[in-house]
Amino acid sequence: MTNAATFDTWHANAADSPAWARIFQRALSLPPEVVSNSLLTWAGLAEVIAALRVAPGQILVDLACGRGGYSHEVARRTGARLVGLDLSAVAVAIAARGGPRGQARFCVADFTAPGLRDHSAHAVMCIDAIQFGDPPLAALRQCRRILAGGGRLAVTAWEPSGLAPETVPAVIHQVNLGRDLLEVGFEQIEVTEKPEWSAAQRALYEAALQADAGGDPALASLRKEATQVLAAFDVMRRVLATATAPAETAGAAPGPP
To answer: 180 lies in which domain range?
Structure first.
């Protein structure tokens, strides 16, 4: 499993690379002010927001929030009170500097042990990071624990396509959201393949391979990632998984996590 120091370096390098940011903005159709640390498109973020069904003043938890660009945008559009958690102290420090004051707080935490109260959130999102749970089931159990009855979960991820050939990256090989969400107790589970998100990801990686890293460690890392992922691209599928916490927990009123 990737450790906090690795993510700290990754986020610090990306934050200092305008060329890295331009590749992400163009491929994902992101506004220049939005900091991305994932591979979700701008249109895809709107789908996540719609799936969360979170209302103004309600509590939204973003697990593995990274540098907070998507977190702040979801809070801005919905009026939700945001709690962002990430393993990287560097990412959390960057996230805490963005967005309107008083609407969000960001903390360093492992999303398999977030330290939040049971049933304290109305909605939880995890963008392109559930595979880093050890195993992913552990992170999904925490999502189930912290959601109040009727609360919504939205997860974007990759799953093996077909029989999970050996070329699938090890962290993706074990992901099966339909199975795992059911096992940890969620209801109303939907896992939808998103080929348009895959197309944007491919375009991003192809742009990275055409770029000259020129001593830029963020671009060099992205080029390496692109080479590895594109080699297995056709045996993975991009998905949005949504689910609802059962109403049996409705008696636990959400409050400050």
So the answer is: 4-203+234-247
pLDDT band of 254, cuts 50, 70, 90 = low
**CATH classification of the domain holding 185:** 3.40.50.150
* Sign of the Cα pseudo-torsion (46, 48, 52, 54, in order): negative
Neighbour count for residue 253 (Cβ, 10 Å): 9
The C-alpha atoms of residue 32 and residue 169 are separated, in whole angstroms, by 31
Asked if residue 101 is part of any domain, the answer here is yes
Percentage of the chain surpassing pLDDT 70? 93
Q: How many separate domains does the chain show?
A: 1
Mean local confidence (pLDDT), 93-102: 79
Q: What is the pLDDT of residues 52-66, one digit of tens each?
A: 999 999 999 999 999
Look up residue 191 and give its amino acid.
V
**Count of CB atoms situated within 10 Å of the CB of 99:** 19
